[in-house]
Specification:
By secondary structure, the chain is of the alpha/beta class. Helices cover 49% and strands 17% of the residues. It has 10 helices and 8 strands. Strands 7-5-6-4-1-2-3-8 form an 8-stranded mixed sheet, sandwiched between helices. Helix 5 packs parallel to helix 8 and helix 9 packs antiparallel against helix 10 (264-296). The longest helix is centred in the last third of the chain and has 33 residues, at 264-296. It is elongated and about 95 Å long.
Length: 310
């Protein structure tokens, strides 16, 4: 039997990109007949004609399949839904905006056939500019230094997972998902394929700056305890300074050289400084507590509006 490879792609308001995506994927499938190809496109509550376009493509070409969620649950939830429904010996995960070239999938499959269970597509370069590019570079540099678990930089959703790796990933029930971190956490033999990331084939990015910030927070708070440790270290430093300052004034009093100055500015500065540290600490604790609260509610990560026809 031919090796079966399934592509999983979350889709949200990508009607301008989908025709080009269908054409390039169909060409990839046709020019590589030694593999049984299948593509699962997860409609994550799109408000445009994306679902209709995918449904029409699935009717024309049985290698394409629509998985429709009941509403917009977010990219990570849609990706998890696609992985849970994907069949095949290997699963390729990628965005639907064509910034990741589908033609590279052949190299990912070759690395998998060479024995790798996890194949990362690592970016040599990327086309984003402006604040978005600066923010991504800063996040990767920052995250690489604070993560408690080694995660390779410059790799995102694009990559390949063997059936064993996907089964392991599907066992992770957490809601705040940072896919590159989870992919690294499951382990398995890993290979790497380098590529240059392209511009979008059409439309505007659907991952807003706010969503990217939230995604960055998920990565930091899911794979690092450093914010909590920093609170402890800061508390120890402030307590040490306060003890030393108190001891200084006690000694001055005992030696009879107390100047008894008003000290209003110093008092206000110390109160505001300590109050600021306490508020930051409460905020960090709140971030972790909110994630614990989301987990204990045990709500499903996504709901399927219409299962794929098989």
């Amino acid at each position: 039997m031919l090796p079966a490879v399934t592509l999983v792609m979350p889709v949200f308001n990508e009607e301008k990109v989908l025709p080009a995506l269908f054409a390039r994927l169909a060409a990839l499938f046709d020019t590589n007949p030694g593999t049984a190809w299948h593509a699962v496109l997860v409609n994550d509550g799109s408000r445009d004609a994306s679902a209709d376009l995918i449904r029409a493509q699935a009717a024309r070409d049985p290698r394409f399949e629509l998985l429709e969620l009941s509403r917009n649950f977010g990219f990570q939830a849609a990706l998890a839904a696609g992985l849970a429904h994907a069949r095949g010996d290997a699963i390729v995960t990628m965005d639907a905006d064509l910034q990741d070239p589908p033609e590279l999938i052949v190299e990912l499959v070759q690395a998998w056939q060479g024995g790798a269970d996890v194949v990362r597509a690592t970016r040599r370069s990327r086309q984003e500019r402006g604040l978005r590019r600066v923010g991504m570079n800063l996040f990767h540099a920052f995250f690489d230094r604070i993560s408690d678990f080694p995660i390779e930089p410059n790799s995102g959703t694009f990559g390949l997972l063997s059936r064993a790796a996907v089964d392991a990933l599907n066992q992770l029930p957490e809601r705040h998902r940072f896919f590159p971190g989870l992919r690294a956490w499951v382990g398995f033999r890993t290979a790497e394929v380098f590529y240059d990331r392209h511009d979008r084939a059409g439309g505007v990015p659907q991952q807003t700056f706010r969503r990217l910030v939230h995604y960055a927070f998920d990565g930091v708070f899911s794979f690092s305890y450093l914010p909590l440790r920093l609170l402890t270290y800061t508390g120890l430093v402030v307590a040490g300074c306060g003890f030393a300052l108190g001891l200084y004034f006690v000694i001055k009093r005992l030696l009879g050289i107390e100047s008894a100055q008003t000290g209003f500015t110093t008092l206000v500065t110390l109160v505001l400084f300590l109050g600021g540290i306490q508020l930051v600490g409460i905020g960090v604790l709140g971030e972790y507590l909110a994630r614990v609260y989301d987990e204990v509610k045990q709500r499903p990560l996504y709901l399927v509006r219409r299962p794929p026809a098989r």
